[in-house]
Design a protein that fits this description.
Blueprint (H helix, E strand, L loop, with lengths): L3 E7 L4 E8 L1 H9 L4 H18 L7 E7 L4 E9 L3 E8 L11 H5 L6 E7 L10 E6 L5 H12 L4 E7 L4 E8 L6 H14 L4 H6 L2 H8 L6 E7 L1 E2 L5 H11 L1 H11 L2 E4 L6 E4 L1 H5 L3
Parallel strand pairs: 5-11
Antiparallel strand pairs: 1-2, 1-10, 2-9, 3-4, 3-6, 4-5, 6-7, 8-9, 12-13
The chain binds zinc ion.
The site of zinc ion has 6 residues, from loops.
Amino acid sequence: MADQLLRFMLQGGSVRGEIVRLEQAWQQVVQRHQLPASVRDRLGELSAAALLLSASLKFEGKLVLQIHGDGPVALFVVESDALGGFRATVKCRDAQAIAPDASLSDLVNRHGKGRFVVTLDPGREQADKPPYQGIVPFEGDTVAEVLEHYMQRSEQIPSRLWLASDGECASGMMLQKLPEQASTEDDRHWEHCQILADTLHRPEMLASDNETLLHRLFWESPVRLLDQHACHFRCSCSREKVAAMLQMLGKEEVDSVLGEQGSVRIHCDYCNAFYRFGADDCEALW
Ligand SMILES: [Zn+2]
């Protein structure tokens, strides 16, 4: 089934994994942005990756993955939560100049100044905890490699990712070697699972549902499904939040925009919603 994430165990419990497939949920992002294919597909891969990483979050906050670029793409950003909600957007400096087959490095690391930023925002439930932020230099040629490098630095758990996306679908799988298992046999299992998963190619990932892929890859040993949940596009913007943001800006600033433009218009880069505050709406803020 599409728009769903499955969590599973392999090889008698020494390797855990997650697999996600987005169709409608991904198309809701695609429809909202006019993006060159190379940019769109990297955003799809980052969206699938964010859902894989946030599925095991222990809190109700959100995970934010950002790739800050020094090339034609200034920023990729995906926000996701443990309940399968996500939103994603891109800021391009020069969308016209982007080749349909541009690599991730071409897009964001042209001068070697790309950065990958992971933020864990604990959310309102744990407002006393500050957000965690990890920043690493851009390393790798694909979204999967950039994330693997980050995970190597930040987590002690060996992890691998396989990602694919086009205009219809975004798909991803993550395997992790469980830390409590340290026997040579478990090392061999881990190697073997990666060799099997490395046979996955983009067209197959895009064409097949989660269950079919798992069955094809790991047919020789039982896959134990742990749980599954639906994934969906969800933007957290609202008129109330925009009003709060304007209050933060202050009356002087807001009045100055009102004076120049007659109203204050705020656009949400994630979902394309427009919020218009006329003179009366602005007056009601104070
Ligand atoms: Zn929005």
